[in-house]
Amino acid sequence: MLEYLDVSAEPIRLQIDRVSKTYGSHRVLQPVSADLVCGDRLLVIGHNGAGKSTLLRIIAGLLRPTEGAVHFWRGTERLSPEARRSVIGFVGTDVHLYRELTAREHLRFVAEVRGLPVDNLQSTWPLERVGLAGREDDPVGGYSTGMRQRLQYAIALLLRPKVLLLDEPATNLDEAGIALVGTIVEEVARRGIVVIATNDPRDMRHGDLVLSLEAPAHG
Description:
It contains seven helices and nine strands, in the order βββαββαβααααβαββ. The protein is of the alpha/beta class and 219 residues long. β4 and β5 (77-78) form a beta hairpin. The protein is globular. The chain starts with 11 loop residues before the first strand and ends in a 7-residue tail after the last strand.
């Protein structure tokens, strides 16, 4: 069992209500809806350009939808945009890491920014969990792409997410790394929700629900 699971918390729910995204006259995400509860593992699939990454970034609060809305619920309480940040973990291929910082420094920086307890500022268990023990004090600039991907998972675990968002989770990972992702997904889903954007057949084993996006038509 992963350390970050909080069995005492109210169950989480994620509602996606006809969310779409348009830049000028160019629609990058057709309207999409979903209603997810604890235990759900959703695969978001679709051709390149269908808006998979866009949808995840909207759920994460990194993009505003042009239409529609995303709501998070804890029990009967609808979470404010600020409160959402405390339940979300996001791992993507374009998440910025600081090459001059070590993995340990990344964890401490994220803990300070999120206002996590002092224990989290000192903790390195997420690095051990993802196979980076012994490399915690090496600058990330010397990491392989796979190691940097593992560091993103370590950061997500530190945040103890109730909603874990994964964008192309198999990218840059070897078979051991992909197996680790599967373990993390299974454990998060026991008390939360996992949303995975992918077209990679290796990721399909991690989900039990499927949302297929249609590529927007272009005139």
